[in-house]
Amino acid sequence: GQQLNQSPQSMFIQEGEDVSMNCTSSSIFNTWLWYKQDPGEGPVLLIALYKAGELTSNGRLTAQFGITRKDSFLNISASIPSDVGIYFCAGQLRTGTASKLTFGTGTRLQVTL
Amino acid sequence: NAGVTQTPKFQVLKTGQSMTLQCAQDMNHEYMSWYRQDPGMGLRLIHYSVGAGITDQGEVPNGYNVSRSTTEDFPLRLLSAAPSQTSVYFCASSRGSRGSGNIQYFGAGTRLSVL
């Protein structure tokens, strides 16, 4: 099946530091989504990207849709303890339906004071 | 705002037992999906539906059945549970179509253990 490589798998950073994570795909996507999952909860959407090259921000979060349509990155500036969680990228294939998203394996973020 | 509601939150089954995981959404979304989440593997699509009466298989459909008799509900059935089905199950819905309609909203999950 479709593979989404997400890196890094985990990060352990200090409060106030900036964070960067990315996803790469072997196929072209027409939509990239970034989700965050807190322990015991379902994923919650952070940012949605719809066009190649698109750069979108949501507070301290910034995500970009790669120009090749095969990658995306998420940056978190000035991390705080509540940023702890697992971050997932998800992509929709051109021929897929709205329900068929492919998810990355996640980046686990831990923040220390 | 209820959004996507999943029941039960936790379930323990014995091998061979059957059960139904419930999912309901109150956003009038056309599209609904079931995923399973296993350690280190992200979320994998089990089955999905593009509207009432229409379902299709995802990446890992074996051992699961679905039906979509109403827009609101999308139950997932395990006919004969196996230990390999121990996982966390998430239901999601989206408005459908292109652009922002692709955004999927997730329930809180059902944690299933099969002994």
Describe this structure in a few short sentences:
The complex is a heterodimer of chains A (113) and B (115). Chain A is an all-beta fold.
Key descriptive features of the protein:
heterodimer; A: 113 residues; mainly beta; six-stranded mixed β-sheet; five-stranded antiparallel β-sheet; 11 strands; 0% helix; 57% strand; B: 115 residues; seven-stranded mixed β-sheet; four-stranded antiparallel β-sheet; globular
Question: Could you walk me through the main structural features you see in this protein, from its secondary elements to its overall organization?
Answer:
The complex is a heterodimer of chains A (113) and B (115). Chain A is mainly β. Chain A has strands at 4-7, 10-14, 19-25, 29-37, 44-49, 55-58, 61-65, 71-76, 85-93, 101-103, 107-112. Chain A contains no helices and eleven strands. In chain A, a hairpin with a 5-residue loop joins strand 7 and strand 8 (71-76). The radius of gyration of chain A is 13 Å and the shape is globular. The model of chain A has no long low-confidence stretch (mean pLDDT 89). Chain B is mainly β and 115 residues long. Chain B has strands at residues 4-7, 10-13, 19-25, 31-37, 43-51, 54-57, 64-66, 76-78, 87-94, 105-106, 110-114. In chain B, strands 2, 4, 5, 6, 9, 10 and 11 form a seven-stranded mixed beta sheet that branches. At the A-B interface, strand 4, strand 5, strand 9 and strand 10 of A face strand 4, strand 5, strand 9 and strand 10 of B.
The secondary-structure element order of chain A is EEEEEEEEEEE
What's the end-to-end separation of chain A, in Å? 40 Å
- Write the H/E string of chain B, N to C: EEEEEEEEEEE
Q: Can you tell me the residue ranges of chain B where pLDDT is under 50 for at least 5 consecutive residues? A: none
Task: Detail the poorly predicted runs of chain A.
Answer: none
Which percent band covers the strand fraction of chain A? over 45%
Which oligomeric form is depicted? heterodimer
Whole-number average pLDDT of chain A? 89
Cα-to-Cα separation, first versus last residue of chain B: 35 Å
Largest interface: A-B, 27 and 35 residues
What portion of residues of chain B belong to β-strands?
A: over 45%
Radius of gyration of chain B: 13 Å
- Major sheet attributes of chain A: 6 strands, mixed
**What is the radius of gyration of chain A computed over CA atoms, rounded to a whole number of angstroms?**
13 Å
Question: What is the count of DSSP helices of chain A, taking H or I runs of 4+ residues?
Answer: 0
Number of strands of chain B: 11
The shape of chain A is globular
Helix/strand-derived category of chain B reads mainly beta
The percentage helix of chain B is under 10%
Helical proportion of chain A, percent range? under 10%
